């Protein structure tokens, strides 16, 4: 029996066979490849091996390796290696006392204090490397005193309430001109909620617009900041404090000196830096306000060398010297950066060519003694030029016991115990950065002493800084400093001594005190 032929089975659709599987795999591969091609790949911006806190920021000439370090030493400049190694070693010692205390010892809690500032230099940067190094050395001395480093003698103790929390220093490099402050401040803010939190930021660089921007952001983040060498009176943020006198205080200290000196009533002349720099702008205003009877309309500008956007040819003092010759001025008020003063002295030493042979006194205000004073000492003597520098520090006087603040002697002993030479104090930056860190530590220890907290938060520390007065005055190396909530962050009782070059004052008299 023959069966009728059956129709053939229909072929399965192509996508159900091996061809479909292959097509699907190919399509998925193409999609994945497209996504990989189009998806943004995060750039690796790390700039130092084994340093996760450091990264490249900026473009072109402004591109720099910036960020934060703590227990792993990193010298942004080889000349800083000695001090950055010591800070990192102390940070590791602090951690060890928490994680692995010696037998029979209790764990010692610790917190972090940031040091935000430039840690490299250029020919036009506001901070020369020598001042960067002494700044870090001063911060380290304060850290060691708080932590009772083994090298210290008992006479170098701080007198701070209690022994904990210990202090780690977080070094925060914001670029040679502070232009990379924003990502670095973000990194510091990320430490606020750590088990061992950041409680304050010190240093803050110098008085330029970038410092104001960083201070404003730190205040927004509720982090207290303590400027070490900030004197510009227009630098103001709700949580910004300073351990230095203001430019207004410098001018008032000079006025007090001038009114009781043989220079009283002599004709004055103002020489000022015209750049957009908070320090020089507010120094000029302070001189104008305090010495209008000396200056009147007698003034000449120049372009300073610091900053990354010079507006003109730097250090041209030709017009200033000609006008000083014409007016026969004998008291010169200098509103400019320290590093340009030597060139003004050189220019003034030629004034006899235009018939001005009378002695001249240059008045200015700075953190320490005129750094280039030795370079121009012979010019000063030979050309009857005197510099009167009202200053935040006067270690040469204080070492001799002349009007030395009560906190200077134990600081000086700690400096020697830690094998630093006395020359570290000359520019004033070690003393002022020590005092900024010490103020943060003083407030932190006061909080723990009153509350028993192992690790205070930034709000507690901010509140306590505003209460550092009367019984809680800070015995800083540069003065017995007081702070409250009504002084726009400036310290009360900060002494402003007078330094004279080339011949020092024989009897400087008691210094002006910031009210």
UniProtKB/TrEMBL annotation:
<keyword id="KW-0472">Membrane</keyword>
<dbReference type="InterPro" id="IPR028082">
    <property type="entry name" value="Peripla_BP_I"/>
</dbReference>
<feature type="transmembrane region" description="Helical">
    <location>
        <begin position="21"/>
        <end position="39"/>
    </location>
</feature>
<keyword id="KW-1133">Transmembrane helix</keyword>
<protein>
    <submittedName>
        <fullName>ABC transporter substrate-binding protein</fullName>
    </submittedName>
</protein>
<keyword id="KW-0812">Transmembrane</keyword>
<feature type="region of interest" description="Disordered">
    <location>
        <begin position="494"/>
        <end position="515"/>
    </location>
</feature>
